[in-house]
Write a structure and sequence with these properties.
This protein is mainly β. It contains two helices and eleven strands; from the N terminus they run αββββββαβββββ.
Length: 192
């Protein structure tokens, strides 16, 4: 009987420990290691690239249930291509119309797993006031214990391609391509 009670107590303790570890975990976007970049070919030759330097948001992961949520806000005025006149043109009405639409967002309630790794995130990208469903494919997703922050950090590179015309960005078509590659490089810090 004592052996049965001891085994039952150990099993219950193990299950409770598993439940405690299975709770959803929230991570805050770490802004110095998170960037949203874009790529567009220029008249079929070189590739123009730019990034948005100011962003914020959270990521919630529930490893036990293989679910999650992502909420990222992008300050569109923080665009950086390395060339001030090009930045100015992209901020104007021909492209991002930053004055009327100062923020873009990506909000997701669907995180896809392969085993214990995030493989994709499906959500709504809202740009120029229009929302479209996009799937961000994960590359090198993982978590590690950051020795400087003394906290768990999870991250990876996530990419997709969009048609800018679906958001009402028609300037220069068809000479400037419609297809734009987006890469969201994310690192997020576990919250207490």
């Amino acid at each position: 009987m004592n052996r049965f009670i001891t085994t039952s107590l150990l099993t219950t303790a193990t299950l409770l420990t598993g439940v405690a570890q299975a709770a959803p975990v929230t991570y805050a976007i770490e802004p110095t290691h998170t960037f949203v970049t874009f790529e567009a070919t220029h008249f079929g030759t070189s590739t123009n690239r730019g990034r948005f330097d100011k962003k914020s948001g959270t990521v919630m992961i529930d490893m036990a249930n293989k679910t999650g949520k992502v909420d990222i806000s992008i300050d569109m005025d923080s665009i950086s291509t390395g060339t001030a006149p090009f930045n100015g043109h992209l901020k104007g009405k021909d492209f991002f119309n930053v004055e009327a639409f100062p923020k873009a967002t990506f909000v997701s309630d669907k995180v896809i797993f392969e085993g214990d790794k995030v493989s994709a995130v499906v959500g709504t990208l809202t740009l120029l006031g229009k929302g479209q469903t996009v799937t961000l494919k994960a590359h090198r997703y993982g978590c590690y214990q950051n020795p400087m922050l003394k906290a768990e950090v999870c991250g990876g590179d996530f990419d997709t391609s969009i048609q800018r015309s679906e958001f009402g960005m028609n300037y220069g078509l068809p000479f400037i391509p419609d297809t734009i590659k987006l890469v969201i490089q994310v690192e997020a810090v576990k919250q207490p």
